[in-house]
Amino acid sequence: MAKMIDRPSGLGAQPTPAFEEQHRRWEAASAKGRSRKDPGSGAVDRTISDVPLKVVYAPEDVAGLDLAEDLAWPGEYPYTRGIHPNGYRDRLWTMRQFAGFGTAAQTNERYHFLLEHGQHGLSVAFDMPTLMGYDSDAPQSRGEVGKCGVAIDSLADMEVLFDGIDMGDITTSMTINGPACIALAQYIAAAEKKGIPRAKLGGTLQADILKEYIAQKEWIFPPRPHMRIIVDMIQFCTREMPKWNTISISGYHIREAGSTAAQELAFTLADGFAYVEACMAAGMDVDSFAGRLSFFFNSHIDFFEEIAKFRAARRIYARHMREKYGAKDTRSWQLRFHTQTAGCSATAQQPENNIVRVAFEAMAAVLGGTQSLHTNSMDEVLALPSEKSVEIALRTQQVLAYETNVTNVVDPLGGSYYVEALTEEMEAQAESYFAQIAEYGGVIEAIESGFFQREIAEASYRYQRSIETRDRVIVGVNAFVKEDEPENIDLLKITEETERGQAASVRDLRTKRDDAAVRRTLESLRAACRDPKDNLMPHLIDCVNTYATEGEIVEAMASVYGRYTERAVL
Amino acid sequence: MNERPLRVVIAKAGLDGHDRGAKVIARALRDAGMEVIYTGLFQAPEQIVQTAVQEDADGIGLSILSGAHMTLFPLVVEQLKAQDAGDIVFFGGGTIPPEDARRLKELGVREIFTPGAPLQTIVDFVTRECGKRRTPAA
Amino acid sequence: MTDDALLRDFEMRKPRALARAISYAESGRGRDIVRALYSQTGRALTIGLTGPPGVGKSTLASALVRKARGLGKSVGVISVDPSSPFSHGALLGDRIRLAEHFTDEAVFIRSMASRGHLGGLAGATADAVSLMDAFGFDVILIETVGVGQSEIAIAELAQTTLVALQPGSGDSIQVLKAGIMEIADVFVVNKADHPMANQLRREIRSAMEMLEWKGWIPELVATQALAGDGIEELWAAIQRHMAYLNETGEIEGRRRNAFVHQVRQLAMGRIERRLDVLLEGENSTGLDPYAAADRVISTLGVQLP
Questions:
Q1: Pick from C129, C195, C219, C287: most CB atoms within 10 A?
Q2: Whole-complex ipTM
C-alpha cells in the first residue's frame, strides 16, 4: 500500500509513515480474524454482480480518481455526485407508484386514492393484452385481461382512466413499449377532448423497445422498423409536446431478467446511445432531443453496488453525450432517472420481509440520487398488491424522505473509498461491454445474435446457483425458514367477470362507431408506415379519435412491418 | 431399459414474456442430465401439449407470471386429456397464490412451485415423478 | 406400452405412437418396430439441412415447412441440437422457430440431442427417418448443426442436402474449408441482404472450383428466410435436384447410400457396444496394444485382416 499516489489531484492523499504503520498493524490483525465465518452465512465476499470485495477500502483504491474530472461537484459535469447543485434540498424525488389493474374504472378509483394520499404523479400499468397489442376479446388475451395492469382497448378506456383527473396538472408515466405510440395518441386525444392542449401534457412514456428484445420480451414489430417508430415519436414530441419525456430507457427489466448490476448499467446505456444515434441519423440535432431522454433503473438489495451503479450511470452518460455525440447543452449531459425497487429480490416466503428489503433498496436509490421512485409492495410476488400493502410502500418513501434526514446532504457517500472504487469498477465493466457490443456492429446486431440474452441467462443461472449452494443467503428462503407459514395475506383478485365485461365492451364499441372513418384512418396509417418520410403520430391520433381499437391499429401496422419472433437463446 | 434421459418440455404460455424462471429451470434440469425442450414464449395450451406429445416428453413444466394461471393451466390439463396424454407429468410455477395452487392441484396439475422454490427441490420432483412414469409403462 | 400395442397405434397413425417409436430408436431398441414397418418406407422426399450455428437454419426449416404445407404436403422435421458438453443433458430450443406449425396436425417435429444415444446419433436419426416415412409424411426435413463429422454424416440420409451459410460469419468460411462442400446439393446463402453476401457467393464459387464435380453441380440460392424471400427459388432448386436424380437414375444410388449408411451405423453401433463390454473385462497386463487388439477381435468372433 505504500505506493505513491501518482495523482496529486486525486482523492487519495500521500500516506504518512504513521498511516503506513497503522496499515501494517491492521493487516496483521485482519489476517488473524479472516478464517472466522458467521454461522448460517455463506462465504460471500462478492457483490451480487460477482465483483470481488476487499475487507476495507483505502486511499490506494481510488488513487486514479481525479477530483475535478471524475468526481466534481453536484450539478457539475460529469455529474457523478448528482445533477442538482442542492440535491434533494431544492426538490424531493417524485414518489410515483405504478398502478393499474382490471378495468379503467377500477384503476381510476385507485388513482384518486393515491393522489389523495400525497402521491405526486401517476404511473400506468397496462395489462398483457394491451402491452402486446391485442384487444381484450382476442383469443390470445384469454385469461390475461386486467391481470397485471389495466386493460385499455381504445380511446374510450383511456377517457375513463383519467375521469375526474386534471391531466394538465399531473404528470403521468406510462409503462408501455410495443404499442407506446398508440397509448401516447390515446393520451393526447383523451386530454384534448377535455380541452387540454397536448403542449400542456407532462409525463413519460417508456417506449424503450430495445430492452424488450433484450429482456422483457414484450415486442410486436421487428427492431429495425420499430426504431423508426421511436424516432417519429421523439420528433413529434420535440415539436409539439415540450413537457413530455419521450422515452424512458429502462434497465429495470434487464435486471429483473437476471442480469448483474454492471450488465444492467451497460446494456441500458448502450440502448440509450442507440436511440441517440438513430435520432441523429434522422437528422436531428442532439441537443434538440437529448434533454428529454430519461432512464429507469432497478434498485436491488446489494446496497453499495447499487449506489455505485447510479453514480457511474451519470458519469458515463455525461462523458459519452459530450465527448462522443458532441452535445453542447448541459441538460443533454445530465442523466435523469426513475428507480423501482427490485421485484426479483422479493420473496414469496415470509412476504412481510419484503417491506424491509424495499426500504433498503429505496434508501440506495435515494443515496444514488434518483429523480423519482416506485417502492414495491410486499405481496407483489404473490399477486397484484392490495391497497394496504400499496399504502405501506408509499409510507416507506415518506419515512425515508421526511424522517431519516438522508435528504439534507447531497451525495453523502461521495468520497467513500469503497463507493468511489465500486463506481469506477462499474464504469470499467460498462465500457468493456460497450466494446463487445461494438464488435457485433451495434445493439440491434447484438440482439439478433442473442448476445444480451445469453449474457443475462448465464448471470441469472449463476445467481440462482449461489442461492442453491447457500453462498448467498436469502432470509426465509434458504435460511431462517419458517415451517408452516400462515397464509394470512390479503390478496387482490381480478375476476373472470372483468375479462368478460371488458371483452363485451370492446365488441360493443365496434358496433357503435363510424366504421368508414375507422377504415379510412387505418388505411392512411398503413400508407404512412410505408412512407418513411411521413411522421406516424398524427395518423395514430386520427385513428384513435375514430375509436379504432389498439388491436386494429397494431394489425394495420403489422401488415407493413411484420411481427418479431425471437431466436432461441437458452 | 431406461438409457434414454428423461425428457421434459419447459413452456411459457400466454402473453407474459418473463422467461427468467423458465430458463433457470431448463438449465437446472439439463445439468441434472435431462433433455429439455424449450418451447419459447407465447405458446397456446394446444401448442404446448402437441409439443410434449411429438417429443414423447415425460413431463411438462409451465411457467406463468402474468396472473393468467387459472385460465391457462386448466386448458393444458384439458388438452392433455383430449390428446390421450394424461400420463405426462404436468407441473408449473409462477406468481401463483396458495389458494389457486391448491385448486390447480385438484384439477390435475401435479405440483406448483412459487418464486423462491429451491432448484434442487424442482429437480428432485421431476426426477422422481417422471422416473415413476417411465418404470411401469416401459 | 407393449410393442404390439405400439405397432397397432402406429398403424392407426396415432402421433403418440410415432413419438414413442422414435424414443425406442433413441434408446437403441428400434429394431423390432423398424423391421415391422420397413416395408412401408421409401415414399418420402428427404431433405437434409445443415450449416454452422447461427445461420438461420431453423428459420429456413420453418419457411420450407410453410412452403411444403402450402403445396398440401405433410412434413416431418427432425431437429438435431447440440448436447450440453458436460453432462448427458441437453437444451433443445430449435422448435421455437417452428412454433407456427405446432398445432398443424400434418407437421410433426422431433428434437434430438446429438449425444447420449446407444447406437450413435446417426443410427437413431436414420431410424427416425424410417419411422416418419412409414408413418406417411410426404417430406422429411433433417436439420443438423454442421460442425462435426457425425452431424455431417447425417446428410447422407437425405436425398437432397442443403448447406446453409451466412455472410460475414467466420464459421461459414470455416465450413467451406472443412470439407462440407462435397455433401452440398444446394448452397443457401441466408440473410442475403447482408452487405457481405456477394463476397460469400464469390467464396463459395471459388471453393467449388477447387473440386471436381461429376453430374450434378450444386446450385446457389440466396434467401432471407425471416421474410420468406428466396424460398420459392430454394424449393425449385430442390425440385430440380430431385428431377435430376430421377432422370439419371442416381436416386437409386442415393437410396442405396442411405441404406448402406444406415446398415453401417447399426452394425457399427452393435460392434462398438460389444467392444465396450469386452474392453471393460479385458485384462491385458503384459500385452502390447497390438496383441491386445488381436485378442479382443478374436473374442468378437470375426475374421479381420
A1: C129
A2: 0.90
